[in-house]
Amino acid sequence: MTHTFTVAALLAANFAVTAPAFAAGIEGNWRTQSGGTAAIAKCGAAYCITLKTGAHSGKRIGKFTGSGNKFKGKITDPADDAE
Known about the structure:
By secondary structure, the protein is mostly beta strands. It has one helix at 7-14; strands at 2-6, 15-16, 28-32, 37-43, 46-51, 60-67, 70-76.
């Protein structure tokens, strides 16, 4: 399943901030709702979300573009192979 998201909705619904909020930028490690860790890092001109822990560790589950506090992209359920 693929989901379109805005970063504000993504962070509110799926991640608890484990680093200083947007002031330090979006890149870094974030705690997921299930307690795992996901990394957000630059990948080309975009940002990629890659799971760092859990059964799907190493799987890229999202990609988005933007800056400041406005981002747009997609995130997938890690159990799906469609990213």
